């Protein structure tokens, strides 16, 4: 084994495959911004043929694959050009992706992100209102305890003189 092969085997980030080599069970890491692809995560194990088709439509020429986390090895390369290397993966930007399916998936992902941000803002406002309400309740409780220590006025019925048989 050559020294570079030993380095590549211990440094899992140096394995790249062509999208045609992908198969179910291969763990990949996309070197794209989170919003530049339709997947929930940038690193994941491929679970379906649909994911492979979506990855191919991204227009990447190389995809980083992590052998230690894969259930299976990628398919053999169809050309000898794809080998373990330390070169960075070319990335596809939003404008380079032209496939309508991928664009629809990206739009759906942006919509989910927007909904998540809206729910987070609502949750933050709810927590703030709850904190304010809790402070008010604590204030009321402290006033009740302070008032409880004061002597009560004499009962009303003891100050009333009964004119009949008293």
Key structural traits:
166 residues, disordered N terminus, alpha+beta, 7% strand, 4-stranded antiparallel sheet
Describe, in plain words, how this protein is organized in 3D.
By secondary structure, the chain is of the alpha+beta class. The protein has helices spanning 3-10, 49-57, 100-149, 156-159; strands at residues 16-17, 27-29, 43-45, 63-65. Helix content is 43%, strand content 7%. Strands 1-4-2-3 form a 4-stranded antiparallel beta sheet, with no helix packed on it. The radius of gyration is 33 Å and the shape is elongated.
Question: Count the helices. How many?
Answer: 4
DSSP helix fraction: 40-55%
Provide the residue-averaged pLDDT.
76
Q: What are the low-pLDDT stretches, counting only 5+ consecutive residues below 50?
A: 1-10, 82-95
Approximate shape:
elongated
Largest sheet: 4 strands, antiparallel
Cross-sheet strand order for the largest sheet:
1-4-2-3
Task: Describe the structure concisely.
With 166 residues, the protein is an alpha+beta fold.
Strands, helices and their partners?
Layout: H1 3-10, E1 16-17, E2 27-29, E3 43-45, H2 49-57, E4 63-65, H3 100-149, H4 156-159
Antiparallel strand pairs: 1-4, 2-3, 2-4
